[in-house]
Amino acid sequence: MRFSPFELADSTVPHSPNPHAEYSILDVEQEFGLVNETDENKLPQNCSFITADIEKEWEFSSQSDYIYMRMIMIAVKDWPALLRRTFANLNPGGQVEVFDGLMHLTADDGSTAANSAAIHWFELSKEYLAKHDIAWDLSRNLPEQMIEAGFEVIESETIKMRLYPDSRDPEADRDWVAANYRKDISDIVHGMTKRMRTDLASRMSPEEWDTLEQNAKREILEESEQRGFHTTLYVRVARKPDLGLNLKL
Fold it and tell me: How many domains would you assign to the chain?
């Protein structure tokens, strides 16, 4: 279910190898993702979870044919280093897919930080990220970084991900998809505010931080369609130069 909003936006999740063939696949995501929601007793025998720091050297027992990274976003500071590790851990002809986005919220009705708590919150989040030397738009230049790591970029797509029912989606799913994505963004606001209010304590009082968080979440959950809130997501697929292995999509 967590993948469904992205599946509807991009037709398929993920752009994986042929599902009828046997490949070694690595799914990389943040700690609060599917790993924490899965009952390992229900997993197939050829699937396992590993908790590891992806910003350190990878010490997996075997190479992968396909590596999928979803919504890593600001969890990684050094994307070039991560892509070099990814390249080293792929078999020749293997593919990496990165589904990621920007820490930025836009409103079609012209709302700005001056009259929108949600947009104000995202502007403050950029200040917080800058204090930790993390670029809010680090996903924007991934194709160039993939090429520098040795990959051949075979797909790069930009998606306008609306926080309200999208006419592009099947009619039966529109409301559900929008509600799920709004909740995802609201959860990001809740989770990051705890850290932002510490590092940016001089900007507002504790009471003002509480009010900002509450109003930002309310706007996201209740006013997204009225304001036309949307974010930017990217899908990037790249291949390690083929030295004999033929991966079919």
Answer: 1
